[in-house]
Amino acid sequence: MRTNTVLISGASIAGPALAYWLHRHGYAVTVVERAPAIRPGGHAVDIRGVARDVCAAMGIMPQITRDRVHEEGFAWVDPAGRRTSEMPASLFGGEGIVAEYEILRGDLAHILHEATRADAEYRFGDRITALSEGDDGVEVTFRSGRTERYDLVIGADGIHSGVRALAFGPEERFIRRLGAYTAYFTMPAQPDLDPHWFLMHGIPGGRCAGIRPENEHTAKAMLSFRADGRTVDPRDVAAQKALLAEVFAGAGWRVPAMLDAMGDAPDFYFDVIGQVHMDRWSTGRVALLGDAGYCASPLSGLGTSMGLVGAYLLAGELARSGGDHVTAFAAYERLMRPYVKQCQQLPPGGVRGMLPDSRWAISLRDLSTRIMTRRPFAALMAKQAAKADAITLPAYA
Ligand SMILES: Cc1cc2nc3c(=O)[nH]c(=O)nc-3n(C[C@H](O)[C@H](O)[C@H](O)COP(=O)(O)OP(=O)(O)OC[C@H]3O[C@@H](n4cnc5c(N)ncnc54)[C@H](O)[C@@H]3O)c2cc1C
To answer: What does the record give under GO molecular function (predicted)?
Structure first.
């Protein structure tokens, strides 16, 4: 059995990584992305554990090393900007909350696109609207009106995956909401802030604002808040901005500057903090990869590593099985599931720990941040990061 053509939905992290490995194993790859170009935006994501080995095998570590953020740690600040507690990166030898290889998500997406654009066909501004599986392939209908046949279709299109909705059912069945929303966007640089620290400010009412300086012109802003029963359409950007303005009205520190910048931000991103849990990641000739199949949420710090590792395994198992997708999908799932299970277990505290609701709880969180930097508690923090190594990658021919 030989599978030759693969359509991947989603060109962020997992999709282009899969395109790389499939091309290397001899497949003809098409990637369809609903955005008009590689999406910019996001904060720093971590490349941890075996995911670093995957990037090294792809030959992209020099670009990642060149573009990674140089962060000395993160600190909580009060409304006047004074530090109340901090977590230096050096404490954990680059494997703690702040990883040695942290890179802005948009920069990593660009590196992966650059590494694959000559070998895979990228189609931006389009998406899959229907899938119909036959004996020898999947008939795919696109929003643009095109219809084409592929041997396999892989959904690497994130927590709100379109492929998952078409092949497995509505997202409510698979997304476990953790009770909070988060937004990321670019804002003007704040020259008086330390350029090497990610600063966060806790606000009563389960809210948090963060700024990560980027260069002399820009910084990355983050606003997170407890959902408390509020819902918002994942595609309605105007409603998301209005909700942020309402929730953060009257907050201090740099929040007014952040709300000002949000209006015109070229890379505004807003989403629910949630996880994806599924009994299986494939059906027939369709399979899921990355956040589409097993999102762990930004609280895990492991989502990008999981997408990179999953791409390596999925392509490797397809090659190993000679294109027999039934065998390959089963092996991908067998190898990946224990790793995903570990990565989806969140560190103590979860959303409530990140977003305390009262001044008292914010002071307690500062205290626990200070305690966490001391032995033996520091070992607890290192445990979450160590999960990134909890898999042995097979070597594929
Ligand atoms: C703009 C953006 C910013 C992010 N910022 C952060 C961050 O700061 N911190 C963090 O921890 N995680 C962030 N994430 C999530 C993080 O990238 C993932 O958790 C992880 O890297 C796994 O990536 P993924 O490729 O599986 O999914 P994602 O990175 O979510 O990528 C999914 C891709 O599929 C595309 N897509 C969605 N629906 C369709 C469709 N129907 N058809 C075709 N394409 C579709 C999306 O536009 C996107 O490019 C961000 C994701 C995005 C898209």
So the answer is: FAD binding
Q: What is the distance between the alpha carbons of residues 358 and 386, in angstroms, rounded to a whole number?
A: 32
Q: Which two tokens stand for residue 214?
A: 């980027």
**Which 3 state secondary structure label does DSSP give 390?**
coil
Query: Which tens digit of pLDDT belongs to each residue from 28-42?
Result: 999 999 999 999 988
Structure tokens at 150: 């592929």
> Which residue spans within 239-351 are E strands per DSSP?
269-276, 282-283, 286-288
At 160-204, the pLDDT tens digits run 999 999 999 999 999 999 999 999 999 999 999 998 999 999 999
> To test the ligand 1 pocket, which listed residue (105, 185, 275) has its Cβ within 8 A of the most ligand atoms?
105
Going from the C-alpha of 311 to that of each of 140, 254, 275, 393, the distances in angstroms are 22, 39, 19, 12
Tell me: domain 5-68+99-174+275-347, CATH 3.50.50.60, correct? yes
Cα separation, 54 vs 315, in Å, equals 12
Integer Cα distance of 164 and 385 in angstroms = 29
Helix (H, G, I), strand (E, B) or coil at 24: helix
* Residue scoring higher pLDDT (170 or 381): 170
The set of residues, in sequence order, having a beta carbon less than 8 Å from that of 171 and lying 6+ positions away, is 159, 160, 161, 164, 165
Nearest CA to 293 out of 156, 162, 198 is that of 156
Strands of the chain, DSSP E: 5-9, 28-33, 44-46, 73-77, 83-88, 102-104, 121-124, 128-134, 137-142, 147-150, 152-155, 175-188, 197-203, 207-213, 218-226, 269-276, 282-283, 286-288
Region 102-116 average pLDDT:
96
**Residue 224 CB–ligand 1 contact under 6 Å:** no
* 48 has pLDDT over 90: no
Q: How far apart are CA 76 and CA 232, in angstroms?
A: 28
